[in-house]
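step 4 of 6: structure.
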Amino acid sequence: MHVMIIGAAGMIGKKLARQICGDHSIGAKIVSRLTLVDVVAPQADTSSKIEQMCVTADLSTYGAAKRLIAGRPDVIFHLAAIVSSDAEADFEKGYLINLDGTRYLFEAIRHQSDIEPYCPKVIFTSSLAVFGVPLPDEIPDDFVLAPLSCYGTQKAIGELLLADYSRRRFLDGIALRLPTICVRPGKPNKAASGFYSSIIREPLIGEEAVLPVPRELRHWFASPRSAVGALLHAAEIDLAPLGARRSLNLPGVSASVGEQIEALRRVAGNKATTLIKEVPDAAILRIVSSWPKAFSAERAKSLGFKAEASMDEIIHAHIEDELGGALG
Amino acid sequence: MHVMIIGAAGMIGKKLARQICGDHSIGAKIVSRLTLVDVVAPQADTSSKIEQMCVTADLSTYGAAKRLIAGRPDVIFHLAAIVSSDAEADFEKGYLINLDGTRYLFEAIRHQSDIEPYCPKVIFTSSLAVFGVPLPDEIPDDFVLAPLSCYGTQKAIGELLLADYSRRRFLDGIALRLPTICVRPGKPNKAASGFYSSIIREPLIGEEAVLPVPRELRHWFASPRSAVGALLHAAEIDLAPLGARRSLNLPGVSASVGEQIEALRRVAGNKATTLIKEVPDAAILRIVSSWPKAFSAERAKSLGFKAEASMDEIIHAHIEDELGGALG
């Protein structure tokens, strides 16, 4: 099986590639070939037996998508996007990369059938940003698409295109609305959501973290490990039971900031939690307080998608995957 | 005020232009200039005092939209689209006209602000086709977008773009999901929905009509007069109360085919209803049985949008507007 990851140099893309290289398969199917694509050069896993090809390409030019799809991958993970704040700051670039790039990809796939029949599986990462206030405490499956950002609009349009191309059997698509990733590895960043990971990640290594919002604030999380697991599960299962509705809210953990901190205390002790400094930031609060608190995710669960059962598990996953399995 | 109608040669476009030409205003605002645009030459109303310009243009080329918007219309009615069956039959043409054409228009509007500030009101006709089964008997406002056709997908994407461009204040937009128009004037056509008008229109002039579906089938209707009224109302009101959700399900009449026929009997007598011949057609039934039965349309009603109160009123509107006010 030939697998392509577009957006392979990103945090999730790298972890996904590493998992596939380690497993040599997705479910029962052997992966013989892996094509890693990104706008910055992706890195091959030299320890893996899988034949890997690294391609530096920008999907937002039509020719690029066509060249990529000429290799007729059986499974395509489309993770490439510019992030929410960038898409809002640069209107044209956001539409070019997140909308046109996705459409060029789907069009290149459709045109491969001009040569001989072709209908690859396409796993598209969508986002909670397709939803907008007012929101219920628990968002049901099939809730109204009402994005309040360019990024959310572009992802919602990508979902609609994916569903229509799937209905017409040009591809066999699924859109996964990933929970907010926690604990995101790496350094603190300026994303409005950054503190959700920072208040766990930094104290675990003895560093201070800033909490800009009240402890009552609730949000929806999954570990990087769960996100990769969901992508692989989507590649493995039969998508026919989805019918025409190809977008799924994934399972996750609903936790308040206070519950995050209590989980940190259980895992790493009081000393860790004292490293969290409360520095209220109205601008960050305004952004994140409009975000979803929880999802029912019933359809995804019935299709076998899983996430952690608690914030404690999410923290343990981070310790295992990023800190060598134990606290220093 | 400069008003532009894109799709001015269509059935609703013509009626809208005629109404504006007769009223010389929309609400309290005088219309001094009317630009009529379509891919086939629109016709000016020579009896009107309004300065009219007829433009033959295809919105699906970027340059066309730019030239149209150079005239900086204050209100733009965007009615242009290729219909559902054509969009399904010719995948590329459907996306080119219904998606790219709409996007080129919005982009041309956005770029007018490069010259000097510009934020026209844009009234976009959307469709019930943005919804797909399973559907409740009465569809609430803010129901999930789940189209089951290329046309519905293209309209849903147009709605999302309109909302995002409105949020960013590039334009002040509203999308109206029109009920199925009944009674559509003119000759019988091959649209799956054609019989809904045909079973009223033909018997009223003493001609036979074919009914291809059972009398229990229920659907959602408004007269051409109501549709034009809704477009003008949208142009007249302040759109700020819509907030970020710029798409409205319009009020209409929910009627079964049997109720349509009983209304025809009340208006035109038994003789008219005997002209309806039942010729079951499984293909037509399969298409129309997945269509919405009714909408709550609460947001639209609260904003002052109106439709007929009954099928009887819809039939009377047809007699007044198309048959000179009385049966022959």
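step 5 of 6: annotate
 - The mean pLDDT of chain B is 96.
 - The interface with chain A takes residues 91, 110, 132, 142-148, 150, 153, 156-157, 160-161, 163-164, 167-168, 244-245 of chain B (CB under 8 Å).
step 6 of 6: archive
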